[in-house]
Specification:
Elements: E1 4-8, E2 14-19, E3 21-24, E4 27-30, H1 35-40, E5 49-56, E6 60-66, E7 73-79, E8 81-88, E9 99-105, E10 111-114, E11 118-124, E12 128-135, E13 144-146, E14 161-162, E15 175-176
Antiparallel strand pairs: 1-2, 2-10, 3-4, 5-12, 6-11, 6-13, 7-10, 7-12, 8-9, 8-11, 14-15
Length: 201
């Protein structure tokens, strides 16, 4: 019997994975990944690389993807809290341009399984957050691309962000409700809107 709970999201190819956590007064134990358990739910991705990042409150990373070497991802938070988002960029998909967001925290221990063909990003809501993810292909610097995080045509409902869309992906004028400025890399403020974005065949 599988020791995880897998819930399919409204968009095909996206799943919430909840591991079984066993704990007592000493702490807890859980399997963060088990190939056999995942296969019972038809999730047969082969992961080739593990990544980890740390970000501070107000950092938004995204929306990222690789064009010729798309990456499937299994993402989770080991410290803090983030709002994690995937946007469907599969040409011909009934849900093209639609998004799913999942709150990932060190307390809920949820994981988000994102198949190839999606743009991915996240917003840090805690003071700091450590983010881990497994990927199905290697990182190719020349193949990376992205999508504007605030494209009104997509309409991602980022929690706690205040500000008005000014026609591009700039973070200028955006902040969290406590006044923390929204913090994006220069590159992430240059990505195009959905109409000009790469589409996966």
């Amino acid at each position: 019997m599988a020791r995880i709970k897998v819930t399919e999201c409204p968009i095909k190819g996206l799943y919430i994975v909840e591991p079984a956590v066993r704990g007592d007064d000493r702490g807890y134990f859980m399997e963060t990944y088990n190939q056999k358990d995942m296969a019972e739910f038809g999730l047969n991705a082969v992961f080739v690389q593990d990544n980890q990042s740390m970000s501070t409150r107000g950092v938004l990373r995204g929306m990222h993807f690789q064009k010729q070497f798309p990456q499937g991802k299994l993402v989770r938070v080991i410290r803090g809290e983030v709002f994690d988002v995937a946007v469907d960029l599969r040409q011909g998909s009934d849900t093209y341009g639609k998004w799913v967001g999942v709150l990932l925290t060190e307390e809920n221990k949820k994981q988000f399984y994102i198949s190839e063909g999606f743009a991915h990003g996240f917003l840090v809501l805690s003071y700091e957050a450590e983010f881990c993810y497994k990927v199905t292909d290697f990182y190719y610097p020349g193949d990376e691309s992205g999508l504007a995080w605030n494209d009104p045509k997509i309409g991602i409902e980022w929690p706690d962000i205040l500000g008005e869309y000014q026609g591009d992906a700039s973070a200028q004028g955006y902040a969290l409700s406590d006044g923390t400025p929204l913090n994006l890399s220069d590159k992430d403020q240059q990505w195009p809107n959905l109409d000009s974005a790469f589409k996966f065949v």
